[in-house]
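Deliverable D5.2: sample structural annotation.
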Amino acid sequence: MNKSKKCPGSLRPQQPHKSLHLGTLAAAISMATSSMAMAQSDAPDASEDDREIEIVEVYGQKMAPYWAVRSGDMRRRSDLADTPQTMTILTQSQLLDSGVTDLKEILDEQPGITIGTGENGNAFGDRYIIRGHEARSDVFVDGVRDPGMTTRESFAAEQIEITKGPSATFAGRGASGGAVNVITKQANTEQNFFVIDGGVGTDSYHRITLDYNHTFADSGAVRINLLEADEDVPGREPVNRERRGALIAGTIGLTDRLDVSLDYYTLTADDKPDLGSFFDQETRQPYPDIPVYFQAEDFLDTDVDSLTLKLDFDINAAMALQNATRYGTTENGYVATGARGTVREDSDPFAPGAETISLSTHQGWQDVEYFVNQTNLFWDADLGSLEHRLVFGLEYSSEEVQNGVFDVTNTAPTNCVTSGRGGASPNYCIIGPDGSVLPDLQHLMGREVVRGDRDSFFQVDTISAYVMDTVDFNTNWSGFFGLRYDHFDYQNSVRARSGDNTDYDYSDGFVNGHAGIVRNLTESGNVYLAYSTASNINGGESDVGGSCGYGGLCGTPEQVGLSDPERVENIELGTKWKLLDDRLLATAALFQITKSDVMESVGDAYDSLGTLNTGKNRVQGVEFGLTGALTDKLSGQIGATFMDSEVLRSINPENEGLALANFADDSAFVQLRYEPTPAFAFGGTWTYQSEMYAGQPDSAAGYNDEIGDYSVVVPSYDTFDLFVEWFATDSINLRLNVLNVTDEEYWIAAYRSGAFMYLGDGRSVRAALTWSPR
């Protein structure tokens, strides 16, 4: 295999006994990508045979548009092919071809990742589950944690990196099953470019993005990315999604050794939410073709703002220092309607005993404020007879998350009587006494919404120190080692449903690490063995307060202070091969993740009643990947994961042997692109996910002993997407995407009781035009 880069972040080929430091990073990236960038007005005219508007792929390569050579996280000192861990990197080219833009939809297609619902219908942003483990708090932007539950978009993404397996040396707390790192589009100092991409489609779809980069002086640049998008959810109109965003980034070389970069990111997402269908216990299937029942007053709003300052300083040819400081805020709020199957009570005045569908209310708000400062020292050193690429890091982070409720009053008259926790009560039903769907469902409840009180105030300050080393033992053996210590001070003030407040305050620390050994079998292939760990703290999920069953606090304040972090261990045996003149990367990995000292809920999951460190579970499986150019005209990304999960130990012996909730044993993804001529390309994607079972996060799926089966089943599904591209001129390219070609009705997640099940999007057709002046 090609050896690791000697320099932090460099994209130049390695030169023996020579290092490239951070001060030349911008120039190196620009030189490497200038052949991949959009032509500038002072560039020679493109030939008739090369009319595709090529986007700037900082870490990719022209001849294999779906293969990113390396991570955008400079702490990863090796190319992807030489990294002893499973990583999937999605390039801009791949994302553009796919036609999918929200991070939730992008990750849901990837093997080994599933989507979950929130506590009691918590609609805050996106919830990801990687290799069976919660990852909703394990999303990073340019290597820095992005806290809170938000809606995330890809318009500003250079590439999206998915790390499989515990990643605590890089991530800190959490990251049990892996982590997601979004690398953003930063200013380019070598070239000017301007690209507009606009699209229209079915379901009132429209989307426009702008990517503008302008250089100044000898070492300065400004880059602006803008987004405006709106669509009805395919098959569920007038349920709607609206996005507006911007990333404004600038960089300047103040001296030959010091670069300063600053970027501001903002995103506003205004949605009309849809909680989908419900699980019918009689048919043992999700209820099909459910009417659109959302209420006109429903909303799911997210406002995200962050400011990042980065300093890159070259100390000497072998040592460089990087410091990143970020301050950010997020405001989330939602009122959403759920639907569930029920029967009218005998006291119902219109149709006693009739089957119907009743509506429920789910709501909440969340305000996030955070500050992070991360410093990394990169040192290329010859120690003894070995070449080391060392990283020493310090990080301080402060997160404050306030969660609260909306006071919702339904002003319209009720139209049915159903049973609930408190017995028979008036309700709202969308099925009339005659069995038909009522008209004007969006105004059935007549809601009035007022922001209510806070019910939890989560605060955690963390100080972290870590060291990583990528070392070459000889031409055949290399190693990848890391050790990290995190110390946190935790506070949370939680208001129970009874109205009583409970204050939690404790501190703790933990050590995690990773170790990987790579054996080069040939110049093109290797085999590796890796071990890594992670830790989860009691109450570590910021959005659920004292809901023990959903990652919230478990135990009384005294018990929480005595609890140990949950421990995660992973062992992985894998192989990676660069094929076809280094244009195709083939990977395979066997893995086993064991989580011990698990906190377990023994109440109703919504309070803090739970056990400390009593559970244990295991996920094991194999993952295959193939990324790059299969021929001169055919490119693709192909991945498949086959896994098995099991609860090994539980306070409730009946859970032992059961599968984990929200866990799909098998999943696969194929995206292919074929370019028969320089002016035309087409391709498509296929996504498959096997069935999974609903339940509480990181716990056994719900099981019904009476029927001898899991209580709520999310059926398996597969979907197909197609795209066609025509490069009309060297300034105008056209693209057509058809998503969910067969218009399959499928479900991607279920609440533990089956009271709601998220629907996947129906079929949609989108046409886009990309324009870049030459």
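Annotation notes: The longest strand covers residues 355-383. Residues 25-33 form the longest helix (9 residues).
The annotation will be released with the project's public dataset once the embargo ends.
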